[in-house]
Amino acid sequence: MANYLIKRIAMLFPLLLGITLITFTVIHLAPGEPVEMQTAMSPKVSAASRARLREFYGLDKPLHVQYLRWLGHLAHLDFGRSFAPDNRPVTDKIVERIPITLSLNVIALILEFGLAIPIGILAAVRRDSLLDRGISVFVFVGFAVPTFWLALLCMYFFGVKFSWLPISGIHSLGYEKFSAAGRVWDLAKHLVLPISIATFGSLAGLSRYMRSTMLEVLSQDYITTARAKGLQERVVIFKHALKNALLPVITLLGFSLPGLIGGSVIFETIFAIPGMGQLFYQGVMARDYPLVMGILVIGACLTLVGNLLADLCYAVADPRIRHGRS
Amino acid sequence: MTLRRLFTLLLVALQLSACGQSAPEQKSLARPKGGAPAYGDALITGSIGEPNTLIPLLASDSASHEVAGLVYNGLVRYDKNLKLEGDLARSWEVSPDGLTITFHLRPGVKWHDGKEFTSRDVLYTYRVTVDPKTPTAYSEDFKQVKKAEALDTYTFQVSYDKPFAPALASWGIAILPAHLLEGKDITKSPLARSPIGTGPYTFKEWIPGQKLALEANPAYWEGRPYLDRFVYRIIPDNSTMYMELKAGGIDTMGLSPVQYQRQTNTPEFLARFNKYRYPASAYTYLGYNLRLPLFKDRRVRQAISHAINKEEIIQGVLLGMGQIAHGPYKPGTWAYKPQVADPEYNPAKAQQLLKEAGFVMGPDGILAKDGKPFSFTIMTNQGNDQRMKCAQIIQRRLKRVGIDVKIRVMEWASFLTNFIDKGKFEAVLLGWTIGQDPDLYDVWHSSKTEPKELNFIGFKNAEVDRLLIEGRGTFDQEQRKRCYWGIQDILAQEQPYTFLYVPDALPAVASRFQGIEPAPAGIMYNLIKWYVPEAEQQH
Known about the structure:
The complex is a heterodimer of chains A (326) and B (539). Chain A is mainly α and 326 residues long. Chain A folds into two domains: 1-76, no CATH class; 97-323, MetI-like (MetI-like fold), CATH 1.10.3720. Chain A has helices at 2-29, 34-39, 47-57, 63-75, 90-95, 98-125, 130-144, 147-161, 180-218, 221-228, 233-255, 265-270, 276-285, 289-317, 319-322. Helix content of chain B is 31%, strand content 22%. At the A-B interface, helix 2, helix 3, helix 8 and helix 12 of A face strand 11, helix 7 and helix 15 of B.
């Protein structure tokens, strides 16, 4: 087992290096440079000041030198400074945006699993009933409706028309003066719309998956046996069937871990939530190379670690994998 | 002249006089409420983009400059009629030969941290701007300076090699506090996140991605602003911002023509908001690549201009919220020549001119010369719906006179690098903002046609070159005016661009704010005089 672990971890490093090399190349292939995005079409900027800016960011160096320099910084766990005019450390920019994205995603994920699993079970147990069909229509509507459109409609109804909920942002003005309970309430009100719309949109995939695994399990012989023993239907479903049906779903949960720090651009833009999606989008549009690379490296690391964890879990569960025999 | 054209002309004339003399349009149903000026309340405004840095010297985005403009002052500024007036400089003198400017600084002005503002700060600002290590885009005007010196605590003098008219306005640059920056690396200064200036508002807090708050400076030299706080909320989506406006989450935003014309004429909206309308400092144009044989012939460019109905574009694209552009200046400003003889909408004349240029109508309804059909592509950047619609209307009009137009929309960065910089385009549909100083050397002088320079269409005209140099070489406004009027006559003849329209700025402001006086400079110039009567204060 230790051997297997060491081998897997050792393999991560060349993989990560390859990922950085490819992303670095790709982002530099995109037309336009940070300096250009800042100064294009501005009558105030001469060729000399443009050259000065390029030198300041180190863009006058050959590409491989730029890459090696960036890699050197990364070796010290330093993502460098942003190419935006504020020139702040990339780490600062990312760190200030992770909490909101992470908490939104975690809450949405919990809700998604919490709702999709029962829905899927219900649909499987009452297969082809009116309820099953109703659920199918409901989740597919959520899947098919463009979220930005639904978001705008909800904002209009709940925010403008009835004034029940705030429209955008995550805090009200004067938030600093609220009591602790008031702050939580304020935050909760701001998050109702984004989280419920995000959850509604993602129900379909997971609940349909749950329904099909459940159906598969329910048609197995041991379920028929359990029923033949005279067990109550409730026990058959929740004790015998569900346990087995849940296994693949838990694998899905593992896969969604790296996604926790990635935000949705459209969503964050509409709700004015200062999250990772917006940061990344702005970074790409401004060709802010260090920022984009920083976010991609974090994402790559999480994906690699997530995969490693999933594999380890399999290995623990299945001796054939950890001993390398089939 | 048809009735419709007469009406159009009248309308334009009315608009011109409206912005030239009296106040621009204001629309509201709100009862004029009484109430004496009172201190208090907050103005909450929304912004699509987040400021980058609050050291204006390093910033290149409008959001940064908007916020920094309330925190810092320059030596000079433009007043409500877009004339230069003293700001941190009480007065100034230009030497008779135009080579030296002496600024007399306002005594007793304090930085927000209590230190006094002196000529040392001005000298520092100049030095850091021209320092090769400073990554700024604004050093160009200051490189013309031969010598800058602080004669005493309140006198600052600069001299130039040759008279340079835009120099005076360039001293509107935000003056930075020397005592906090001298000897330090400006790119790593904490002032970028928490600025200290001399302006009417002091910095309070900045929550990244959410909001930025400023507080009234009680010791401001022009008097304390009435509004206690200025809050800048970052709302990246225009529809969200509009809903925030309606729900009371923000107090002001710039409306789109559709929002202004179609969505905000309800009694409720007009009771809660005042809508303003005045020409924005920008114009949209169709520019031709003059290096191509096709567009070298002036008659062809004139013909295209004759074939385009600008009024129709303004109606279709801006719902009437704009006016025809005849040249590169803003209507109503001193540099703008009111009646230039540019090509009017006249398809028959267009056809005549094209015939003279050697084009013959082919059987497919497309003009051709030497067997080659008259066909070209208009390129524009992605994400600008107005430009896209504009191109479509032009396409249809040109089709009628027998010109085949294709439209290509490109992402901004690749548009610039792969097409504009390499001169690989036929015609472009783009816009310029109109600067407050009328010097247009960078856009029209024949020396500015290299890659990445702004005369990317390759316009070369000896007379325009001469007038541009004369115009920037004198401080005499009458003489400058003659130069720029001359340039407008030539551009109207040459049609290197077809100047399309100057859109209107359409801000809405909650009606509780009083003291707003629309002027050629817009409405924000007297923000410190805005107030909310005590009974109506909300925040």
